[in-house]
Write a sequence for this structure.
């Protein structure tokens, strides 16, 4: 096991933080931690890398207590809000990070290390800018440099907090490819991100944080299979029913009209947290004298899952 946390909790003075997080991360996995803004994702990661002291709970990295220098030796980390010394060149930033990892300046000037700096810059696609100062980099290039810093010492575990937030679609695609190549090399990756397409493309395991609490964790295929999206084909539908039905729904249960025609036949696209909620939806429809012709699950997508887990109460009308 690479990472294990037991009831990890951080409570900030003004509230917020995260509560009682127990997670396990196995070697070779790409793990995606999802959640809306302010859910507590960065707080969790900061405790794991030793930047924040937990209020309670514990964790082990490589079997060593989190927060210790020893537990960090095999770890590469890209913080969410990174700021580099913008008067340094990309190569110099990497040399500085090598020194932070325990090397001397003389060692960073060895042909081996110069080669390594060029290699990681190449890996993130900015090798041609290595001798330019960081202040001349775009935000996306700085983010790429941050990923290069995380990979620099060839860590076994790479923790990336929002690695693609400043990248254009090509850059994001390249990050997904990079993550896949890291997995092929047997590395383990922990990813905090809002970019659901990236998570869908690459993660094996997904956890969902909401208001500081862990709401779900498991293999992505399994979580999506527990399908949150259903189609209900009905008869006897008329537009005024939309509000009547909406008023009776439970948190996490939402629907939109997918199709409807003048004869009163309609297809409702329903997002639910559980099968029981679909039972409730059927009951509500029957109470409104709607005829149900067919109820069937639709293969889930991460976006729908994310919205239903967040308890999004938005209803869409088409
Ligand atoms: N240093 C701090 N002091 C006080 N409260 C904080 C601090 N850092 C974060 N918080 C609060 O803790 C909660 C979780 O914040 P955190 O940054 O961990 O969330 P997040 O899921 O990473 O959000 P985002 O996706 O927006 O980066 C929020 O309510 C936030 O306001």
């Amino acid at each position: 096991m690479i990472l294990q946390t037991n009831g990890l909790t951080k409570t900030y003075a003004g509230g917020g933080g995260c509560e009682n997080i127990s997670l396990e991360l196995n070697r070779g996995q790409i793990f995606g931690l999802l959640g809306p803004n302010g859910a507590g994702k960065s707080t969790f990661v900061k405790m794991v890398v030793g930047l924040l002291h937990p209020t309670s709970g514990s964790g082990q990295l490589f079997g060593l207590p989190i927060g210790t220098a020893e537990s960090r030796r095999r770890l590469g980390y890209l913080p969410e809000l990174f700021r580099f010394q913008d008067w340094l060149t990309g190569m110099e930033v990497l040399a500085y990070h090598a020194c932070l990892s325990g090397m001397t300046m003389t060692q960073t000037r060895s042909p081996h290390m110069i080669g390594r700096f060029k290699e990681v810059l190449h890996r993130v696609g900015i090798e041609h800018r290595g001798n330019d100062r960081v202040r001349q980099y775009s935000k996306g290039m700085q983010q790429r440099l941050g990923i290069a810093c995380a990979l620099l010492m060839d860590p076994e575990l790479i923790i990336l907090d929002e690695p693609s937030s400043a990248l254009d679609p090509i850059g994001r695609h390249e990050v997904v490819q990079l993550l896949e190549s890291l997995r092929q090399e047997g590395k383990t990756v922990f990813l905090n991100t809002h970019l659901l397409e990236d998570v869908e493309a690459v993660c094996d395991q997904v956890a969902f944080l909401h208001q500081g609490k862990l709401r779900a964790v498991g293999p992505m295929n399994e979580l999506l299979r527990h399908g949150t999206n259903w189609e209900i084909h009905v008869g006897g539908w008329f537009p005024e029913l939309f509000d009547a039905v909406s008023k009776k729904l439970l948190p996490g249960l939402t629907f939109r009209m997918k199709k409807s025609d003048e004869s009163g036949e309609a297809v409702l696209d329903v997002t639910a947290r559980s099968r029981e909620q679909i039972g409730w939806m059927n009951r509500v429809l029957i109470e409104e004298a709607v005829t149900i012709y067919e109820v069937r699950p639709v293969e889930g997508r991460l976006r729908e899952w994310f919205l239903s887990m967040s308890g999004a109460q938005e209803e869409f009308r088409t």
